[in-house]
Design brief:
Number of strands: 9
Distance between the termini: 58 Å
Number of helices: 11
Oligomer: single chain
Helix content: 40-55%
CATH topology of the largest domain: Rossmann fold
CATH class of the largest domain: Alpha Beta
CATH architecture of the largest domain: 3-Layer(aba) Sandwich
CATH superfamily of the largest domain: NAD(P)-binding Rossmann-like Domain
Largest sheet: 6 strands, parallel
Strand content: 5-15%
Length: about 290
């Protein structure tokens, strides 16, 4: 472990978010190690001074901070259990994946194994991650914040601390609320543009009316541009968005809240994926509007 200067950081998972997170940490002077299930997706990090490991256990050995950026709670659980035997005393585990209420079992595992757990999902997709403009929502002990805040500053534009106990799951539950809003915006844009197409309305007129008014926002501009250009290069895929919708629905059911829009939106993603759009940008839920 590092005894002075910036901590040694391991990033487990170098996908759409994990790759730029690892790179930005290295650029900001951190000693970074990385692992990804498909090693080829991590190899380019070596150009930035990141050491790419063959296994999660190799990646975490000697690390001060371990960051998980993986698909979902079960995957995070599997990988951290493989890595944990090689993690030293007092290692901080910064859990940044979107895991919903699986955060409870992950925090329990951390407590059982003596890991310092920080619940810290991020808001933002490919471009904010590339530009180190993520928003970090974090919950963790006051004593550990000076150790992890420099990491958050290196990858994000701001950090919102929402609790002093990572085990509370406060940050992960806030992420569920934010994802509910993102899903609503995504489907709203997609359905409006699909109806414009079906009614022979010029979609540019729709966008023009909204632009600059009270219904306008950056997300509307981004996703309408994606759909109108027909360029669905993923910043966050349809299949991942469907997973996030499932997490929202599961949490809402346990809390006794009806989420009719999220349920209908999840069905749209399932339909779009079945049509062959699962690996495309989540805006491709647009295609679910059209009856075969």
């Amino acid at each position: 472990m590092s005894t002075f200067g910036a901590p040694v950081v391991t990033v487990l998972g170098t996908g759409v978010i994990g790759f730029p997170v690892a790179r930005n940490l290295a650029v900001k002077g951190f000693t970074v190690r990385a692992w990804n299930r498909t090693r080829g997706k991590a190899e380019a990090l070596a150009e930035h001074g990141v050491r790419v490991a063959d296994t999660p256990a190799d990646a975490v050995e000697g690390a001060d901070v371990v960051v998980t950026l993986l698909r979902d709670g079960p995957v995070v659980s599997d990988i951290i259990k493989v890595a944990e035997p090689r993690m030293g005393d007092g290692v901080v585990w910064v859990q940044m994946s979107t895991v919903g209420e699986d955060v409870d079992s992950l925090a329990a595992f951390a407590a059982e194994r003596g890991l310092v757990f920080v619940d810290a999902p991020v808001q933002g997709t490919r471009q904010p991650a590339e530009n180190a403009e993520l928003v970090v929502m974090a919950a963790g002990p006051e004593a550990v914040r000076p150790r992890v805040q420099p990491l958050f500053d290196a990858i994000g534009k701001r950090t919102l601390w929402v609790g002093d106990d990572g085990a509370s799951g406060a940050a992960s539950r806030l992420k569920l609320v934010l994802n509910t809003w993102v899903l609503a915006l995504t489907h709203g844009v997609g359905e409006a543009l699909a109806l414009a197409r079906a009614l022979d309305v010029d979609p540019a007129h729709f966008v023009d009316v909204v632009t600059g008014g009270p219904m306008d926002n950056g997300y509307f501009q981004l996703k309408s541009k994606v759909i109108l250009a027909g360029d669905f290069t993923p910043t966050f895929t349809v299949d991942n968005a469907e997973k996030d919708a499932r997490l929202v629905l599961a949490a809402a059911e346990r809390a006794g809240v009806r989420m009719d829009l999220v349920g209908a939106g999840r069905a749209r993603f399932v339909r779009a994926s079945a049509q062959g759009h699962g690996g495309k940008d989540m805006a491709a839920g647009y295609f679910a509007s059209f009856i075969d």
